[in-house]
């Protein structure tokens, strides 16, 4: 369904922008726009990229639950994707996830890669640091910047509404909830079990 | 700033769509698209409309904190608006807020008003209920539907980033945090104190 929605909205660059909600340690919600970076290999986990120094990384360490809100303007569809998010940093023990991280780095634009060597996001902007924002971009063929992370959203519930037809469906998977608890401790990539999604038609 | 951003993006209907994050009673985040319905009178509180039967109303009763993520595609700006949200329902004791609710009802389209007399959102869709989705819209000049609510977002912090210039600023107000605790108990409309917003330039 998401691949179809992406195709229907491919003329809009912002159709790949989604809003990621997390919960702050003090119990308040946080919400920001992130860019969809594709599915993880042949799974249906969504990937994004993030800076290890960003607030969302520390928020997720305390509460891994997320809800993605993804609105497609051309097809007038909204997906609410609920689940948890894992952060793959340079120290991850899983070789396949590390490879996915490196591949995501290589696919980034120069402007996108540059941000990961800028001064710490959210800290006061200092005149003495201005030159750091003008550095040449790190090489796409080199190792990913130390603070570059891949975020993997493991979805356990989908709430989809089509505003043209006013059809709304909720898809949920108990099995996915188990998978979301973590990657296997033996270091293998997370396998994609045959998820059985339960579908319900609900009132919009 | 928001009025300027709205003007810069006025060719895009979806520029009035924003994503509202709340926290569910079980501690997981929730996130959905809502439509900006203007500022509350001459205040800088944002208004939206919502159905009293929707999950967000019960979520807000337990935790009034929200974060709005508002992305403007044409000007490539993101606002993260953090604060709390009050729900104005038909039983509100504040006459000015009740009037704002009724005026919001009158400004809705026929399609928008119809939704408030549909069967309960999120409940299983029943074939026997299909006729209810085909009812004529309630009159814009009549009283607002009983489940129609105005949501008022009282913003205490703004995180604004301009992706063209990579300038990011955070505006925060301690005074607004006090106002957000509730409307005056004497039934007057919430007054708009002279907010002193502290501005910080931070790293994007």
Automatic annotation (TrEMBL), chains A, B:
MF terms (GO), sorted A to Z: FMN binding
UniProt superkingdom: Eukaryota
Alphabetical list of Gene3D superfamilies matching this protein: Electron Transport, Fmn-binding Protein, Chain A
Pfam families: Pyridox_oxase_2 (PF12766)
Descriptive protein name: Uncharacterized protein
Organism this protein belongs to: Tetradesmus obliquus (Green alga)
